[in-house]
Design a protein that fits this description.
Strand content: 15-25%
Order of helices and strands: EHHEHEHHEHEHEHHEEHHHEEHEEEH
Number of strands: 13
CATH class of the largest domain: Alpha Beta
Radius of gyration: 20 Å
Number of helices: 14
Number of domains: 2
Shape: globular
CATH topology of the largest domain: Aspartate Aminotransferase, domain 2
Bound molecules: pyridoxal-5'-phosphate
Structural class: alpha/beta
Length: 338
């Protein structure tokens, strides 16, 4: 089976398993786990922030971030299709008493400065006030669009001009960096905090990082504890995470595979494929006369897994357990299925 459902399905390699086995550990709630401390320092250095916090999942990282930046009752501006709105169980409302105001992004999920200005709400007797803007890069629902540094900067500067901090959901920020040919720190520089996943294209079995100023991370650490994310000998899972960080330069391989997969699938009658910017390939199968669910059932029977991303849209994701041969095989398996 060629599993293209997500870049989260990768399994840790022998080096990662050995790193877990040999990790020096301590109680991380007491800040005594040297492996976690090292990972947090290295992560902060790579994204160019003062500090970083190791968190179990990207979802928890985002939820800690929004809570840390805001006060209960405030509004959070989010792009309409963003993960933090669509796929986190309404956590901002459930966990932090926040109200989401969605902002329309463009077809790549870019939020313009104008949209931020018109959606901003000043606090007064009747209105809660805007407490935060979240952005996403790469943008998952928009097919892994890698949003340019200049666009992030323009929008973040507009928010800052209104005294609104900015959190970046950078679950795949290293995919964005690889696609744009910049360092992740350049993408992160205009924003106040960033979350990124070690457990996606970077290949770690578990874990994400939340990075920002020292003051932000100190308060985020308390919120991590509150949400149940204070872990003990976490070096066991942080050790492979540290190796994963060094995998960021191999993401271009996934992007090349995504391009080849997209080109191959686009040549199949009835399929229309968006040119991928990173490792996410969105395939529109309406031209086959079948729904996404029917299409997925058929390709599963010939050995390929994907996920439905709409009634007629399927997402395939390349990752480090998928090689050139798998891409060729996936294309011919889809062809056979149809
Ligand atoms: C996967 C993902 C998350 C959440 O990460 P989990 O570790 O699955 O909780 C957040 N944002 C985006 C854009 C993602 O793709």
């Amino acid at each position: 089976m060629i599993d293209l459902r997500s870049d989260t399905v990768t399994r840790p390699d022998d080096r990662m398993r050995e790193a877990s086995a040999n990790a020096e550990v301590g109680d991380d709630v007491y800040r005594e786990d040297p492996t976690v401390n090292e990972l947090e320092e290295r992560a902060a250095e790579i994204v160019g922030t003062e500090a970083a916090l190791y968190v179990p999942t990207g979802t928890m990282g985002n939820q800690i971030a929004v809570r840390t930046h805001t006060e209960r009752g405030q509004e959070v501006l989010c792009e309409r299709e963003s993960h933090v709105v669509k796929w986190e169980l309404g956590g901002m409302a459930q966990l932090s008493g926040l109200q989401v105001r969605t902002v329309e992004g463009d077809d790549r999920g870019v939020v313009s400065p104008e949209r931020v200005r018109e959606s901003y709400v000043a606090e007064d007797l009747h209105r809660p006030g805007t407490g935060l803007l979240t952005l996403e890069n790469t943008h998952n629902s928009k097919g892994g669009a890698a949003i340019e540094v200049e666009k992030i900067r323009e929008t973040a500067e507009t928010a800052h001009g209104l005294d609104v901090p900015v959190h970046l959901d950078g679950a795949r920020v290293f995919n964005a960096a690889a696609a744009l040919g910049v360092e992740a720190r350049e993408i992160v520089a205009p924003v106040d905090s960033v979350m990124f996943c070690l457990s996606k294209g970077l290949g770690a079995p578990v874990g994400s990082m939340l990075a920002g100023s020292q003051e932000f991370v100190d308060r985020a650490r308390r919120n991590r504890k509150l949400l149940g994310g204070g872990m003990r000998q976490a070096g066991i899972i942080a050790a492979p995470g540290a190796l994963a960080l060094e995998n960021r330069h191999r993401l271009t391989d996934d992007h090349e595979n995504a391009h080849r997969l997209a080109a191959g699938l686009d040549g199949i009658e009835g399929l229309s494929v968006l040119e991928p910017e990173t490792n996410i390939v969105l395939v529109d199968c309406e031209g086959t006369g079948h729904t996404a669910e029917e299409f997925l059932a058929a390709v599963e029977s010939t050995g390929v897994l994907g996920v439905a991303f709409g009634e007629y849209v399927v997402r395939f994701c390349t990752h480090w357990d998928v090689d050139d041969g798998d891409v060729e095989e996936a294309i011919s398996a889809v062809d056979r299925a149809l």
